[in-house]
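Hi everyone,

Forwarding the result from last night's run.
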Amino acid sequence: MRIEKADCQNLDRALSLEWLETNGRGGFASGTVAGANTRRYHALLLVARKPPADRLVLVNHLEEWIDLDGRSIPLSTNLYPGAVHPSGYVACTGFSSAPWPRWTFDCGAAVIQREIFCMPGRDLVIVRWRLVGAKNISVILRVRPMLSGRDYHVTHHENGRLSTDASIGPAGVVWQPYPDVPPVRAVHSGTYRHEPDWYRRIQFPVERQRGLDGEEDWWSPGEFRFELEPGEDHTLALTSEAVDRLDTAALAKLEATRREPFNRTARAADPFACALQRAASAYLSERNAGQTVIAGYPWFTDWGRDTFISLPGLCLVTGQHETAWRIIESFSAHVSEGMVPNRFPDAGEQPEYNAIDASLWFIHAIGRYLAYSNDEARVLATAWPAVQQIINGYRRGTRYNIHMDQDGLIAGGVSGTQLTWMDAKVGDWVVTPRHGKPVEIQALWVRALEVGADLAARFGDVAYAARCREERIRAIRSFRAKFWYEEGGYLYDVIDGPSSSDASIRPNQLYALSLCDELVTKKQAAGIIRVVREHLLTPVGLRTLSPKDSRYHPHYDGGVVERDGAYHQGTVWPFLLGPFVTAWLAVFGKTAKTKIQARSFLNGLEAHIEEACVGQVSEIFDGDAPHHPRGCPAQAWSVAEPLRAMIEDLGVSIAPNTTRPRRITIRSRKETKGPAISEVKTPKPRKRSR
């Protein structure tokens, strides 16, 4: 995906466009097309000490200058109070996201290309510069790294605790600003001069918009100097690994080969599907010896609910069945009291079991995995026991009063909790508690009983299969009797709650159509689709509440309280287009005409991947037009569910992704005690105001 010169040189536009590189370990590099960091989460080297959690920002940014014909021309851009300095964006003539972020700068007599890419399975980012379009000319490139060494959720400020020491050798430099964070190793093809300094009051405007601290100080240890010659690459590799030599050319070639299939849009009948397939790979990550799904970048780690809603789109329809299994296997090991974890905290504490739906989505994903892979042996050994634990746990009751009621439906909720995906909570205020029997939970329960009956029959447990079928029939009968809201012509969102039944027009009722075809009549299904389309459908997703509701929030902005108050009260969620397309075709049939119409519901998202985080889909959008993107600029289920619907329901073909990330180490060494090469002690750095 390419951003042209006019957008690159329009500061507001270029600051609104973000790029993302991930390493499959929870670490990532990200920033803006303009080059300036606008979020505290933007960084060049951001690592996860306990993948994918415990994330630290080690290297925030690079300040870059070209010395040419007696002039210093900036390539980088920074934001300060009331000032932009330097302003490298004015020389940028193009940006491309494939195969990795690449900028082109016209510096007059010289054209410079800069590339940034992460290596899969490694805490390693490589920055590469090349002088192109020039002959018989040499250019000096000066680069200053900016470091912090902080938790990625906070900001860094000048302090006297930071160590200004460095270990310097002929091909590498090691810094460790703080003793409790990993050292940063820089392997480079130039020269290095140690000259510590502070850069103060860097501005993060997006954080200020979110009502958070939007200012930071960076420490810069020194300056790299590269003599650029036409056609030759110069590199700066930054890592927290114990490596002092790298064959960056070989690494770049291997990584380009790995990514090459994602860039063949001609393989896909629908280029948008191919773009989503490429985006999907960013969310797959290590967790211990297994695999998991990052819910969204930059601030989420792995959530059970998000993982299993996303798994079919990220892994199954893309042909990554082994990865899907490793994710299922990882969560199977954490089943407790009939529940899978909903969240693994950033700091790596015990998992949290605070969702009524995550465990049911887990069962649904196992059913889909078996349908795609026919992998009965591993499902029998590992997944089937987990499925039984969950079904049995919901039958007898588990945490948060989650239990199967006498009518065969699932109820749950206690004061002060939020158990469904509509889970915003501010202090003691649960914005949408949805205690009782939420509509999508019943659809998931009916689906779980279907999977349970199928697995029990496959594996010879006749009695268990019969019980699941009986309970499924009872749940369907109760659903039909209780959930239809005759006056409105749609389904209640919640029944049997503390305040009786909730007739709010919300998108959750779609799952009664997309997960099961027995919960409503055809006529009722058509009415549901009509109501959802009229009240909730937008070009980029579905609103979480009808605009005609007095609680509707048209915009997701302001501080934490304002934003969380709007999160599920009208804010648009693009992942809901997946079940909407599935439901649409289930109701109206899969004809050429209905498929064309269903595909048109995704046109807004197709346009969106050229804004916000380039090539990705945002978490949410404002409820009212023009539906500005909000929240995380890259969200797993926002990519996965539209992709799943395109392939499973619309019949779009893509080339299956069978590549696996490989950890590649070239000329590495084990870390030794003491300085790597030679130690330089430096005095306290002089001050510089910015």
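Confidence is low (pLDDT under 50) at residues 660-690.

Cheers,
N.
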